[in-house]
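Encode chain A's predicted structure.
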Amino acid sequence: MTHKQHDQLQWSLGILAIFLVIFANTANDGFFEFVRKPTALLFYPKLIFSIVVAAGGNLLLMLLGAAQLARPRSTWSMQFNLILRLIIGILLGSVGYYTYNLLVTGNLRHFQLINLIQMVVQGPVSGYAPLYAIVSFLISLPILRLIATQADFAIMRYIFWLQLIFIGMFPIVIFFTGISNIDLALPLAIESGLFYPLMGYWLTNTTLIKQLTREALLVAWLLSAVAFAVMISVSLYQANLEKNITILTNQAFTQTFQAIPCLTVFTTMVVHVLNRSEPTAFNRFKQSWVQSFYGILLVAGILFIPLRLVLTVLAPWIGLFGGSVIWTVTTMVASYVVTIVLRRFKHLRRWLPSLFTALDQEVR
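Encoded structure for chain A:
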């Protein structure tokens, strides 16, 4: 793929991935709104959509792998500086989220740094899980680049089947057999932060995509439908078995066979971009969005809760789910505007880097 084709892919799939990642924060208002009315007509479409939403972070990691693993190795200092800036950005975003929550509850005087540190260390706050995954990816980048560039087709296929067996089949087998635990460590290469970037690279920077036929892509879509059917069926069986519909919000099985539809969607977009006539120049508006993806996710973590006002106003008219969609879009646009304004200042731009450009361009 050419540089312009990569840009087009990042725009097309990146916007979708960012929307899904932010929408996941709507929780019971949108993401899991279907459990409120399990007998409603739209229960199953919303359940299916909730599984699609869970794929947002995976698609983003595939785009990162496609962009960063193909670049020459940067110096250790450049890589360390970029990772440090991302971590500091996450910390500052967490401070903003934590402070706002204390402010609206009238407990600002109880602000304690130790509580904030515990929140950040114990797990992502304010929907920052994808940012944690991005930091992990960048930390692993030198090793991942060696694997990506040296692997042959047999290794690619081996890693795919490992993921399908350990992440896809094992959880379902454990559930139906009643085995409480299998004392077997998961292979490192099938962790989401490693598996999806590798697949993103192999599908865009090797001859793998050229070996794909139209029939094979059709089979991939059929297998994706089967994967969704399995994930939904097992999830509903668990809910019926335990007589608790809210257990669907745990999403115990939504990542089991997620690799199949994720790879299918990504591959379809790559084929679509390759078959289009290459544009003479990439739209500057689209490029500004792509460069702002990290900033959008970071700022959205702060703006998302205050902008819940959008849902409060719209829910009586278009329902919780529809209101959540507009709430998410509003948060995306507002976060983009804030990021664009901040990136106009040279010193602030360094703290809101583009995730898809060379590391040496982002640490200057």
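The longest helix spans residues 309-343.
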